[in-house]
Model the fold of this input.
Amino acid sequence: MANSIIFNGTDLTAYNLIVTGHNMPAARETAVERVENKGVAGDARLTPREFVLEVIITGTSVSNVMGLVDSIKGVLNTAETVQMTVGLLSDRYWNVKFKSMEGDLLAQKNWRGTISFTAVDPLGYSTTETTSTKRIGVIREGLIFYAPMYHEDLDADPFDTKDDNVFSCDVDGPTWSAGGYVYDGTGKITSEVSDYLYELDTIAILGWIEPDITAAKKLYFEIDNGTALTRAESAAGAIADDEPTWIACIYDGAEIRILINGVESGTPVAVTGKIRGINILVDGDEDYELFDGTQGELEIYSSLTDEEAVSIYTATAWRY
Done:
């Protein structure tokens, strides 16, 4: 229905609820517009967005309408994070968390008020229905480096990262697109963050890539602790040609491991000591050739648990 809310599979029009207004985008957005229209200038993805729906609930008496209000609150409180659609925007699938429901009686049979939700990914929505539950918000503690390569602010040489450190990054060869920076195997992006990372005891590197390779390959993650170069390998064929893939390379001070699309891939490898060097090889080429493909975004944290890393994967997967 045009004025409905479907929350976690339940159509709230069954409780005589009608949506009369909202603060959601009224037209389909491009990738760039999704960033611009969120009103969180310069720090778009890191600030969860609140959606507010204006609603009316109609009953037969004061007790009846207040009973409907309580029933709706019961539905909204059933799950931590769920998928929601709004009839006015029937081609959008929002992953949200219920925040509040406030309003007043009008006469004796109508309740008018607002229902507020927090969006899992403040940059936007998915146009494909999914049953996956996504965690709300984005981990900020320990964030060192964040470069959303698809953001038009990064279409510059040099460009600045979207974190509190505001690292400068030099572009030598790759070209910007709304999907991210496109590499041809000869260019690179360098940043002053490199010096910052050395001497850390732990690290988590996360990002979205779409490699241009001849066949499915492994991902290799190497840590140099000043004594030896230690390598972890993903499962064979974990990285596919021309397919958006989320990768996470984590060093927790005791071992290094790899996650691919939210799942651990390969076997963790024991290593200790401070970081003296880092390598991530998309195809395991021993000659350390430069990346060929598209890079959607890159995040570096001083540390993350696997669960925290996966929550970032699920919060950003809709974009790819």
In short: The chain has two domains: 5-119, 143-319.
